[in-house]
Amino acid sequence: MKPLDPVARQFALRMIPYGVFVATSFDDTTGDLAAQTVHWVMQTSITPPLVMVALPVGSELNRVVRASNRIVLHMLGRDDAAEAFAFRAGRVVRERGPAGDFLNGHPITTGRGHVPLLLHAVAVVECRLLGAFEVGDHHPALFEVIDVHVRLPPHRRPDEMIMHLRELGETIFYGG
Fold first, then answer.
1. CB 35 within 8 A of CB 116
2. 104 against 18, higher pLDDT
């Protein structure tokens, strides 16, 4: 078998469309909190409702998700680039004050198990971890959807209401 051409491989794999999501997780036994922008997300079953998220190896998000067995996916709207970039590095700053609670400068509320929920996300999906495969530089993890919060009334195709990676700029790619 001939080796893959790395330039062709990168080009071909970048043809796969990606959404832009912020994932949060909170371990209520330790108080550990993680949040990070993620792109490799897909639905894998309707009944029961299951989603797959690729968790970066060595990330705080991966560690906290494994410890807490839960994750929250925030579907960002097409104008939510600020949130996408605010959580890109996986750094988390939680602030509490008279104006409310904030995560990396963005207003939040809390969901099941005190996991932070971004208030401005178009939709929020709370999930329970079922298992993960420890292969590659991102571990594919399977989650069952346990709660949803739709914050924007449907006014067009649901897959057109969220931000896609291509909307962050001509030179922003993921994977390949």
1. yes
2. 104
